[in-house]
Automatic annotation (TrEMBL):
Keyword field: FAD, Flavoprotein, Monooxygenase, Oxidoreductase
UniProt name for this protein: Flavoprotein Monooxygenase
Matches recorded under PANTHER family: PTHR46496, ZEAXANTHIN EPOXIDASE, CHLOROPLASTIC
Gene Ontology molecular function terms on file: FAD binding; oxidoreductase activity, acting on paired donors, with incorporation or reduction of molecular oxygen, reduced flavin or flavoprotein as one donor, and incorporation of one atom of oxygen
Organism listed in the record: Ectocarpus siliculosus
Transmembrane annotation, as ranges: none
Top-rank lineage group of the source organism: Eukaryota
Record carries keyword Signal: no
Cofactor(s) of this protein: FAD
EC number of the protein: 1.14.14.1
InterPro entries listed in its UniProt record: FAD-bd, FAD/NAD-bd_sf
């Protein structure tokens, strides 16, 4: 059993976005998903109980009784129905990569987590021949655009770490290393939408720091809860949406909070 499995009580499974999307799409009909459609505007007519959606480059207006905004951390649905003035908080800098890294061999199907001075890094194989690694720390300043300098910066952050961990980064082609600011959205304990018939899901509802690596799991739990609520034919649709939000708001806001606390804990207690 790996340390992380011991810590959380279940295995930490690595899967790439590409592979996960393939699995999810495999469960849908061909015309359930329209790729490339970019939502630009939505307007709700509360009297009629209809929301109109307008997509870039399309003259047709889609009219819906219920809309779930699952459009990620910079959700325009959230801006419209919850908090037009809200600002995302970019707290920390993450370095991550997806690459063929032959050495050191990483655990298949399970992630490995390592703590050292000020950060925690996790790494593992997410697809045959593709390893993912990522670590996050409180930093500010400019994003480094030059791949070689970026790789150097990542390695400098890992000074004093076990050689195995440094080798994961050292053996990654520099152009595969990504440096990006990450953060979370303000916690919403009481509502996800001020407009009836519109709700949110996943990062649009509750983006969190990647400290616990729980963003995808939480989004999938939202999807499962929504399915359960709207599958009940006895519950009117608007009530089902409320039930869904009530079931998911507090657990997901709690995880957002724990992810923030975990970030401080890892830096100052575990690694301090
Ligand atoms: C560096 C980093 C590392 C992470 N590591 C992990 C990890 O190890 N484990 C984990 O569980 N989570 C991790 N996360 C978090 C995880 O990526 C997110 O929680 C997860 O992707 C949320 O899924 P989502 O579907 O809600 O949003 P997204 O994955 O952001 O998907 C939103 C979708 O909406 C589309 N979209 C956006 N705007 C529009 C629009 N106007 N019209 C139409 N479509 C639109 C986007 O193109 C995208 O396809 C990490 C995040 C970061 C930044």
């Amino acid at each position: 059993m790996t340390p992380i499995t011991k810590l959380v009580g279940y295995p930490f499974i690595g899967i790439s976005r590409h592979a996960l999307q393939k699995v999810l799409l495999g469960h849908l009909e061909d015309d359930d998903v329209e790729l490339g459609a970019r939502l630009e505007r939505l307007d709700t007519d509360e009297g009629e109980g209809i929301t109109e959606l307008r997509f870039r480059g399309q003259s047709e207006v889609v009219r819906a009784r219920a809309v779930i905004g699952a459009d990620g951390r910079r959700s325009i649905v959230r801006k419209k129905v919850l908090a037009a003035e809200e600002r995302n908080c970019d707290w920390a800098l993450t370095w991550w990569a997806l690459a063929d890294i032959p050495e050191p061999a990483t655990p298949k199907g399970e992630f490995r987590m390592s703590y050292s001075t000020k950060q925690a890094i996790y790494y593992g194989e997410v697809e045959e021949g593709v390893t993912m690694w990522s670590f996050t720390c409180w930093r500010d300043g400019e994003i480094e655009r030059d791949p070689e300098l970026r790789a150097g910066r990542a390695l400098k952050e890992l000074e004093g770490w076990p050689e195995e961990v440094r080798n994961v980064v050292r053996n990654t082609p520099p152009n595969k290393i990504i440096e990006v600011y990450v953060g979370d959205s303000p916690l919403q304990w009481t509502t996800w939408s001020k407009q009836p018939g519109v709700s949110l899901m996943g990062d649009a509802a509750h983006s969190m720091l990647p400290t616990l690596a729980m963003g995808v799991t939480t989004a999938l739990q939202d999807a499962a809860a929504l399915t359960k609520c709207i599958d009940n034919a006895d519950t009117p649709l608007m009530e089902a949406l409320k039930e869904y939000e009530n079931a998911r708001r507090v657990p997901s806001a709690t995880l957002q909070l724990i992810s923030r606390v975990a970030m401080v804990f890892i830096e100052n207690v575990l690694c301090g």
